[in-house]
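FORM 7B: Structural annotation worksheet

SECTION A. Query
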Amino acid sequence: MDAEAFDRYFTARYPVLVGHVTAMWGDPGAAADAVQEAFVRAWTKRREFGRHPHPDAWIRTVADLPVARVAEELDAQPGTVRVWFSRGRVRLGVLLDEDKEPRHA
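SECTION B. Predicted structure
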């Protein structure tokens, strides 16, 4: 898959795939991040990715893979790991907001 074809695929399918992963995870922000990361991985392997018979399935699988690995490693359910990730992102956002320096006009 060349860069132009990849760009067309990304533009057409990214919102749809974020919707699919959001339905699985229940967290739109985490889903968007995971799908974006899956697309980065697809970009680095775009020759092989372009030949995949089901590219949407590849993206969804790669997007869900980190959760599965963490769940397996911690002997937890994937849904529990998603909740932990979601809570961690919220807490990180709070901490990052606290660390912001005031802007001077």
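SECTION C. Observations
The two ends are 47 Å apart (CA to CA). The chain has five helices and no strands.

SECTION D. Sign-off
Analyst initials: ____
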